Each structure stands twice: as structure tokens, then as C-alpha cells.
Write the C-alpha cells for this entry.
Amino acid sequence: MIKDSALIVVDMIYDFIDGSMACLEADKAVANTVAYIKENHPYPILFVRDHHPANHCSFAAQGGPWPPHCVQGTRGAEIHKDLLPFVEDELCFFKGENPAEEQYSGFQGINTAGQSLQEVLELMEVKNPIVCGIATEYCVRNTAEDLLKAGFKVTVLKDCLAYVEAEGHKKALEAMQAEGIRLV
């Protein structure tokens, strides 16, 4: 276990697992994340969640590139049931709630107390965040890169990732590693 660490679980929610934007290796990523948590608890565990209004700008009906996904109040926006025992409400960060703004990075997420992910990590004195989640090419990469830019020493768990397509996943991992993000 790394001192001053926390696990950040990005978008392990149903629409990215078996829903409208199901990603490759999602079931495996969830299972591996649960196993990792059980082996490495009591890390603090923070959850980032896409949480869109029905009229979000990223949806095709509003001119965006994606089908409707992670709509507030739907099953698709819920964290996978196997991860629920590890969820603490104050450590959940919601992104994409503004209908006019796309947010890939968990760094833009806000918890129910109005705190950002960075604020909570700093309050917890976390220096070495460990990131896993869905999808490597988008929300995982953006979250990891923003953490790195903010001065954190970032690790990404390769076996706990799901992705939109294999080549994009591979390129995202290579880019993150080249930027100084540790892959394990």
C-alpha cells in the first residue's frame, strides 16, 4: 500500500458497463476493481460519476457525439452494485450536470457538499491517487492528466479499465505513460 493514497473510481456506472455506451472489458474492470479494493482496503475510495440532465449537450439530439447516457434518475447513471458497499455519499463526485457543458474529467466533479475532487484529496492529504474506471480514452485519461497537472503523483490500474475501442485504449495508455503517469 502506498502512503497518502486514495483510489479514484471513474464512471463505473451501468450505461458504460451494459447500457447505451457499454465499453469493452467493463465487467472485467468492475470485477478487478472490487478485487483490488478488497486486497488494499482501507484506502479512501472516491467515485466519479457522469450524471447528465436529459437535455445534455453531449447527446446526439442536442448536436453532441454521444447517445443519451448516465441520465440523472436512471439505472444507467448508477454505480455498479458490486461497488456499492464501498460508496460513501460525500466521496461521490458528479460531473456533466450542466446541460451546456461537457465534462470528461473527474477533476470537474463536485460532491453533494459542493467540494471538488481536488479539494477533498487535499483535505485528505492524498499525494498519490490511484485511478481506475471507464473509459480509458476519455474520462479516465482526462482525470489522470488533470491530477498530474495539479501536482499529484498518479497511478493508473491497467487491469481495472474498460474502453471504447482497443486502439484508442492502447494510445491513451501510451500517452499517459509518456506524460509521467505510472501504469501498474
In short: The chain has five helices and six strands. The first strand starts at residue 5 and ends at 10. Helices lie at 14-17, 26-40, 117-123, 136-149, 166-179.
